[in-house]
Amino acid sequence: MLEAVGLSSREITVYQALMTRPGADAARLAADCGMTETQTAGVLLRLVQDGLAVRHGRPPRYEAAAPDVALGELIGRQEERLSAAKTEMHRLTQLFRDAGATQDDGAAIEVVSGGAAVALRISRLYDAAQRQVRCFDRPPYPQRPGGPAAQVRRRDELSYRTVYSREALAWPGRFQDDVLPGASSGEQARVRANLPVKLVLADEALAVLPIAADGGESAFVIRSCALLQALSALFEHEWSHAVPLVAGPRRSPDQTDQPDERTRALLSLLAAGLTDEALSRALGWSARTTQRRISALLQELGVTTRFQAGAAARDRGWL
């Protein structure tokens, strides 16, 4: 889950190990984490530079910094960068609005009105893509989710990447009917707590961006221009700080204890940071059923907290 603040899997592993072994040296941590001492020393150096660990003594020993302080600083830095990207996007959007959008096919920005017209442009965007399609997906949805973008036939030669907001996963029926099947068929899916806009991008050539914050039935169709570059950069920023949504477990030949589909869905949403209420809506469960199944999962993994459950599930190859 800490990938969302830019930490690698090795950094997360060593940071967690430091919490249980304060004052350990690189050799001790390497043995605990299944890494070489050289690898561990490199990870420790990065943790110290990021303020997640403190080094003292000779030979050097390490202490974990308090998560609420250290991780809070990392989150703050990322929020500053994201805020700057959002500000630039809004500035460029206003610039084009002031200049006056036209419906000339040769214009950089075209305004399309009406649900059917917007759906047609999204379909054409998918057809025009040569390398990749990237999306921001968040509610509200004027129509039922799983609309035009979801219904387009996927092409094997294209890369599909979508960042979902937590609200999107919690939308009734959305996770099981649309998100999981898409991820299982090859879409790379990640999750952010919130997203600034809805967006569909084809390569670096074309984008569809709803005009209204609530989605609405009007959209900008944006061709290659400075605004498209800003939107592409915004997507990559959000993608790099989003949490991967796991469609299936990491299997190895000697593993037989794999979770069932229900447990896999629960683990995916827990890793994405959904609240119990959002979990219930996403999976169609009552609050009592959600609590019971979370408790059963913790018991099966032999842990007492959800953070420990994430680590244990990853160790088993379930995430």
TrEMBL record:
<feature type="domain" description="HTH luxR-type">
    <location>
        <begin position="256"/>
        <end position="313"/>
    </location>
</feature>
<dbReference type="InterPro" id="IPR051797">
    <property type="entry name" value="TrmB-like"/>
</dbReference>
<dbReference type="InterPro" id="IPR002831">
    <property type="entry name" value="Tscrpt_reg_TrmB_N"/>
</dbReference>
<dbReference type="GO" id="GO:0003677">
    <property type="term" value="F:DNA binding"/>
</dbReference>
<dbReference type="InterPro" id="IPR000792">
    <property type="entry name" value="Tscrpt_reg_LuxR_C"/>
</dbReference>
<protein>
    <recommendedName>
        <fullName>HTH luxR-type domain-containing protein</fullName>
    </recommendedName>
</protein>
<dbReference type="GO" id="GO:0006355">
    <property type="term" value="P:regulation of DNA-templated transcription"/>
</dbReference>
<dbReference type="InterPro" id="IPR016032">
    <property type="entry name" value="Sig_transdc_resp-reg_C-effctor"/>
</dbReference>
<dbReference type="InterPro" id="IPR036388">
    <property type="entry name" value="WH-like_DNA-bd_sf"/>
</dbReference>
<dbReference type="Pfam" id="PF01978">
    <property type="entry name" value="TrmB"/>
</dbReference>
